[in-house]
Automatic annotation (TrEMBL):
Residues 266-369 form the Transglutaminase-like domain. It comes from the Archaea. This is Transglutaminase. Coiled coil: none annotated.
């Protein structure tokens, strides 16, 4: 009973919404052929289908570094477990190019020296790269100052505190009162993605006495490497692109990717990361029937900037799928946004639904944070539906649709017409 919602029904549908009937009055874009936005009666409601998902056990990654690896890797060190990373007051300014400038506003991390020690070298400020791509070298710049009475030589260490390793760069003949920039090349290990607390250690003297230690007020966020030899997108990067719907890692992107890193923290393969991210979004999102979520689709940044009173994000299934897509893409997992209609086999009602699929290196993995369902494309048939009729939506552009005066550009609230690429897939066999 697929039927088109035309302009003549517009006022009727608005009245029905006002009296509490949950219809979705989307405006037809006069497209030819099948298109899901013209053909459903209402959104699906949230369900919990997790009992049908096969048990997924995520093992904590082993980040142990062998002595042999330290020996053959210049600048790599294992952090002494006895190091106490103190927390001085610091100011943070985010800069272009995935970096942040950190300025120390007190010196509480200066180590108390014995009476025999003349070394007092501390961090003054620095510029740190927070966007960590696995198996690449990223730069950190630490500006150090010698408050001691003599020349100082030693090492500056930038640490991945949780993983227990650091890379260092030496400095020499630092004059009393002198400030110097030290560039520390830091190679990101391929152990796990997620949140990476960062620390700085400064050592001085022939025995490398520690004169300074601090945990930084920003975290590194480690993601997968999408080059050809690691984990490429099968569609040449199309499923990793930013858009006006998915903003990582630019603009306000630090806040998108840092929450994504928290969602997928301590996983070391794309399948596990996607599963844990799906669970996080399912828990974080609140299903709502209020405007604008019934009429539009909101961006990841819009959701983050408009939490409800409980600190959760509001939306219907397309917001669930949007946030999941933004998070997984920002962690380097190719993900595509899909929407489909399905017909209830008993009532013949036609429902609209939004989900996603993530690439695990071998196949597209179904993910539905609204229904708490993962790697289970038959969930919709099992729930009593037929004719799972799919469309792939991509290239969201907030200024693409200019026909609707209620849809201003650049506000983070998009119509489905703002997707410049809409690929009709039909009744995909694995879902039907």
């Amino acid at each position: 009973m697929r039927r088109k919602i035309g302009a003549q029904l517009w006022s009727v549908l608005l009245v029905l919404v006002l009296v509490g009937t949950i219809f979705v009055p989307l405006v037809s874009a006069e497209k030819t052929g099948e298109n899901w936005i013209d053909s459903f009666d209402q959104w699906v409601e949230p369900r919990d289908m997790s009992m049908y998902t096969k048990e997924i056990i995520i093992e904590e990654p082993d980040c142990t570094i062998s002595p042999e690896e330290v020996e053959r890797t210049p600048g790599l060190m294992v952090i002494n477990e006895d190091v106490n990373f103190l927390e001085p007051e610091m100011e943070v300014e985010f800069l272009p190019g995935h970096t942040a400038h950190v300025n120390v506003t007190d010196d509480s991390t200066r180590v108390v020296k014995s009476a025999k020690s003349n070394f007092d070298v501390v961090m003054k400020n620095g510029t740190f790269t927070w966007y960590w791509i696995q198996d690449t070298v990223i730069p950190h710049v630490v500006n150090i100052t010698n408050f001691g009475p003599t020349l100082a030589s030693g090492r500056v260490l930038v640490c991945s505190i949780e993983d227990g390793y650091a890379y260092y760069q030496t400095y020499s003949d630092l004059l009393p009162g002198e400030t110097r920039s030290v560039l520390v090349p830091f190679k990101v290990r391929p152990d796990s993605v997620g949140v990476k607390p960062m620390g700085v250690i400064i050592q001085a003297g022939p025995y490398y006495e520690q004169t300074y230690s601090a945990i930084l007020p920003i975290n590194g966020t480690e993601i997968y490497n999408n080059d050809d030899s690691h984990f490429p997108d099968p569609n040449n990067g199309d499923n990793l692109e930013t858009s006006d719907l998915y903003h990582f890692p630019f603009y306000e992107g630090y806040w998108v990717i840092s929450e994504a890193a928290y969602a997928g923290d301590n996983t070391n393969n794309p399948y596990d990361t996607a599963y844990r991210t799906m669970q996080y979004v399912n828990d974080k999102m609140n299903y709502t029937n209020k405007s604008p979520y019934l009429y539009y689709i909101t961006s990841d940044v819009y959701m983050q900037n408009h939490p409800n009173d409980d600190g959760e994000y509001d939306g219907v299934c397309d917001e669930f799928a949007t946030l999941y897509t933004a998070f997984t893409r920002s962690l380097g997992i190719p993900t595509r946004f899909l929407a489909f209609t399905m017909e209830n086999a008993t009532t013949e009602e036609v429902w609209g639904h939004g989900i996603a699929e993530s690439w695990d290196g071998n196949a597209w993995i179904h993910s539905d944070p609204t229904w708490n369902s993962f790697d289970d494309p038959q969930a919709y048939i099992r729930a009593g539906n037929i004719h799972i009729d799919m469309t792939h939506y991509d290239d969201a552009d907030d200024s693409w649709n200019t026909e609707d005066p209620e849809d201003p550009t650049g506000d983070g609230i998009l119509r489905y017409e703002d997707f410049r690429t809409q690929t009709y897939l039909g009744e995909v066999p694995r879902y039907n």
